[in-house]
Amino acid sequence: MPVTINSFMGKFGWNARKYFPNLAAEAYLKLQFTTRRKTQDAYCKWFLEQPESPMPHVVNIETINRCNSTCSFCSASVNNEKRPFMKIDENLYKSIIDQLADWGYKGHLTLYGNNEPLLDTRIVEFHKYAREKLPDSFIFMSTNGLILTMERLRAIKPYVNQIIINNYAMEYKLHDNIQEIYDYVKAHPDEFKDVVIQIQMRYLQEVLTNRAGSAPNKQATEKVITEPCLLPFTDMWITPNGNVGLCCCDNLEVTNFGNLNEMTLKEVWNSKKLRDVLTKISQGRQNYPFCKHCDFIDAGFRMQLAKKTLAGDIEGANRTGGEEKNTKESRK
């Protein structure tokens, strides 16, 4: 089926996150930190042993820094956003895509950061340009679906491999427009046979991670996190002004390893400045101030990428979907 509805641990898990938010979050994080340390250590070690930094598995380009949802856990929501409004310059965007093409990039691309991509009126044309230049890349869109219509879905589907719809709500039910989309796609599978549509049931006010202290409903604690983090090793994080930050948790744009108006992608990715930080993080988050108290952990997608890469299956890693089933954490 081209469309599925997922929720971590089903309705039981959704209700746990609603009625026992802190307990559910802490139990989940404890489990993940316990079970993922070995793979994270191995991937970070492998990455740093390469003579040149391996290409990122995921390039995130935030084309507009605004969202239209009210998620209480996100500093980019309409009630919490503090950044000056910014849209990426079209020439800069095309330059980034062109550089990826010249680099021979075949990994994942998403035109999304801490935002709602459909708020950018250029988003379909941007995806079209990316698909033309990067025919072998896995392009996925992550959206809250609030302004998604069948017309928009049909416009974007030729250019993406996957569409992830995060259905944020106070009750365990689909929004009317998302229900309409689900019913139509399910009834017309041939029309959507070339794209995977994944609907995630999300609680609007759930507690997730502290995101390096930027999460409005879960500020950073004094607890020091000694585990490494995969995100800076697997992802390149680009904001609308062209800055390359450390990861999605830096919604306030505290970190900056270079601006793509002044440096190339490869120059930033292979820079000593970034390499030094990655070396510190590989030995534990306590070694880099921004990450010291951050309890963010990947929901599973990047762990799949790391495992396949360590097994020598780079092609398989490049074809892995943008989110795995039943994920708990999402950047939206």
* Global mean pLDDT: 93
Radius of gyration equals 19 Å
Largest sheet: 8 strands, mixed
Number of helices: 11
Q: Return the string of H and E elements.
A: EHHEHEHEHEHEHEEHHHH
Walk across the major sheet and give the strand order. Answer: 1-6-5-4-3-2-7-8
Structural class: alpha/beta
Give the amount of beta strand, in percent.
5-15%
Shape: globular
Q: How far apart are the first and last residues' alpha carbons, in Å?
A: 24 Å
Helix content: 25-40%
Total beta-strand segments: 8
Uncertain spans, ≥5 residues at pLDDT below 50? Answer: 324-332
Task: Kindly describe this structure.
The protein is of the alpha/beta class. 36% of the residues lie in helices and 12% in strands. It contains eleven helices and eight strands. The chain has an eight-stranded mixed sheet with strand order 1-6-5-4-3-2-7-8. Helix 1 (10-19) packs across helix 2 (21-49) and helix 2 packs across helix 9 (272-282). The longest helix has 29 residues, at 21-49. The protein is globular. The model is unreliable at 324-332 (pLDDT under 50).
